[in-house]
């Protein structure tokens, strides 16, 4: 008998074939496309008599405006987070890092009595047990038993606001998995690990791809004896293959693919590679060519209508459009939309300087009549604001990190490979306000930044400056320098609320591009 493990991960509440920002645009992804994909693949597998397990691998309740709407506006409708996975037939669900963005209480509400939730390493401090869910589950069919262990990256506390994760311990998933696999291997025919995390090293060469912080421990999980298959996520990468005899998958972002891992339950654990009929296999099935599952689209029609009505409400007016037509160019030259965000951060905190990122290339900017759809399209995360003190030397080091975002190739400015592989990290490049600065790309890394003035005064490397950034950056994520600064104040309101309040207060606001940044080549 063959075991088929089908998985999605990091769908981030993109359920329809839409990015929701462009209301009528049809996109090549979405959970309802994945539902059609899995239904057909599952049916074919069952006809062959295969043992099928379906896994939802985390970051399921946050990401698009749908997640924000259900968490903050229509909590009474949030039961769909349990109902929809049940209808789709997921056997197991795993917590992602973004599951914690709305707080522990919301998670306990969402997953109350959900028998499919597997959580082996996020524990309650008092009991030492999973704070919700259970560590693993054993599934049985025709005398064959398969265990699935659910794990979450232990790095969550490095990003998440403490008030969102009170009383929680994020234990090392590798240590937990090693103990559980050893125990379960004696009871079952196969042990599957579903891990919301990825790989810090290249799977073929073992070359280091990123700093090993413990965020992505997939390579270590592959070393555990007795693991039959490994489902991963978090990095939004498209990965599949068999490594060390173990099939792995990582099905990207927004349900753009379904992972399919195949394990022969009758094969010897030390099966020779020459017997390909019994060797494990792995592949990704792109969902772009599959239609949305009509049943679920119809069921969600009421919520979709309410969501669209809420998103299309005009919340403020500007004097002119601030449209982001060419985001890569805006990262090189600055943009009045970025200046607006930094202006709000400066006025809220009273800081000397402000830094913010253009998170992805889909950000729409603002039309003159600003809608909630645009607001959440530009700022999809429930980040808050933090003011931090940095010395002038630390400020320059932080800017040097930003200068490393660019490289020169044949005299053309390009994005450095380090920000594109193993995953795109545009969200880690900041544009600043409050100073005039330049990047000289002809100079080596670490020697590119020239700070001309700070708030009209000469730059002083010994002086202390205050900087306004979001809480993600304040932890040092994407730029370690910020973790070395002293936190002056933490502002609890989400940045989307601060932006909306600011725009409403300054009706007809005029924003002029600062022209405070230049790249030399």
UniProtKB/TrEMBL annotation:
Q: Which UniProt keywords apply?
A: Hydrolase, Nucleotide-binding, Signal
Q: Which residues does the UniProt record annotate as the domain 5'-Nucleotidase C-terminal?
A: 315-479
What protein name applies here? Bifunctional metallophosphatase/5'-nucleotidase
Q: Which SUPFAM superfamilies match?
A: 5'-nucleotidase (syn. UDP-sugar hydrolase), C-terminal domain (SSF55816), Metallo-dependent phosphatases (SSF56300)
Which residues are listed as membrane-spanning? none
Q: Which Pfam families match?
A: 5_nucleotid_C, Metallophos
Calcineurin-like phosphoesterase domain residues: 5-237
> Is Nucleotide-binding included in the keywords of this UniProt record?
yes
Does the keyword field hold Hydrolase?
Answer: yes
């Amino acid at each position: 008998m063959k075991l088929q493990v089908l998985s999605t991960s990091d769908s981030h509440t993109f359920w329809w074939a839409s990015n929701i920002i462009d209301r009528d645009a049809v996109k090549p992804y979405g959970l309802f496309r994945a539902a059609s994909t899995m239904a057909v693949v599952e049916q074919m597998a069952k006809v062959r008599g295969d043992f099928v397990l379906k896994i939802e691998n985390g970051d399921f309740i946050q990401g698009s405006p749908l997640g924000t709407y259900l968490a903050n506006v229509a909590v009474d409708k949030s039961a769909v987070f349990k109902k929809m996975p049940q209808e789709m037939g997921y056997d197991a669900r795993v917590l992602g890092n973004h599951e914690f963005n709305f707080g522990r209480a919301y998670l306990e509400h969402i997953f109350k009595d959900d028998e499919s939730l597997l959580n082996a390493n996020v524990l309650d401090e008092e009991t030492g047990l999973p704070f919700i869910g259970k560590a693993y589950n054993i599934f049985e069919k025709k005398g064959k038993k398969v265990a699935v262990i659910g794990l979450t990256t232990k790095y969550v506390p490095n990003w998440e606001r403490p008030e969102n994760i009170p009383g929680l311990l994020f234990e090392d998933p590798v240590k937990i998995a090693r103990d559980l696999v050893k125990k379960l291997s004696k009871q079952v025919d196969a042990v599957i690990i579903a891990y919301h995390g990825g790989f810090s090293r290249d799977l073929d060469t073992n070359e280091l791809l990123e700093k090993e912080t413990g965020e992505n421990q997939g390579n270590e999980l592959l070393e555990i004896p007795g693991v039959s298959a490994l489902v991963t996520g978090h990095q939004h990468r498209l990965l599949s293959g068999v490594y060390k005899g173990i099939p792995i998958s990582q099905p990207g972002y927004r349900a753009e693919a379904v992972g399919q891992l195949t394990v022969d339950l009758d094969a010897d654990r030390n099966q020779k590679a020459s017997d390909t009929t019994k060797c494990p296999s792995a592949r990704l099935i792109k969902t772009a060519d599959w239609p949305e599952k009509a049943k679920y689209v119809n069921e969600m029609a009421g919520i979709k209508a309410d969501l669209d009505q809420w998103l299309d409400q005009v919340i403020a007016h500007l004097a002119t459009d601030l449209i982001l037509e060419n985001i890569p160019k805006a990262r090189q030259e600055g943009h009045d939309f970025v200046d607006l965000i930094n202006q709000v951060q400066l006025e809220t905190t009273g800081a000397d300087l402000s830094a913010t990122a253009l998170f992805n290339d889909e950000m729409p900017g603002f039309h003159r009549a600003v809608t909630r759809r645009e607001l959440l399209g530009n700022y999809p995360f429930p980040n808050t604001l933090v003011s931090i003190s940095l010395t002038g030397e630390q400020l320059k080091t932080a800017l040097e990190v930003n200068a490393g975002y660019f490289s020169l190739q044949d005299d053309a400015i390009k994005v450095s490979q380090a920000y594109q592989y193993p995953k795109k990290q545009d969200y880690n490049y900041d544009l600043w306000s409050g100073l005039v600065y330049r990047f000289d790309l002809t100079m080596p890394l670490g020697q590119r930044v020239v700070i001309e003035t700070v708030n009209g005064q000469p730059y002083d490397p010994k002086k202390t400056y205050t900087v306004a950034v979001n809480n993600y950056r304040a932890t040092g994520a994407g730029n370690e320098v910020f973790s070395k600064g002293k936190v002056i104040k933490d502002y609890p309101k989400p940045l989307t609320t601060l932006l909306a309040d600011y725009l409403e207060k300054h009706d007809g606001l005029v924003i002029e591009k600062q022209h405070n940044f230049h790249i030399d080549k």
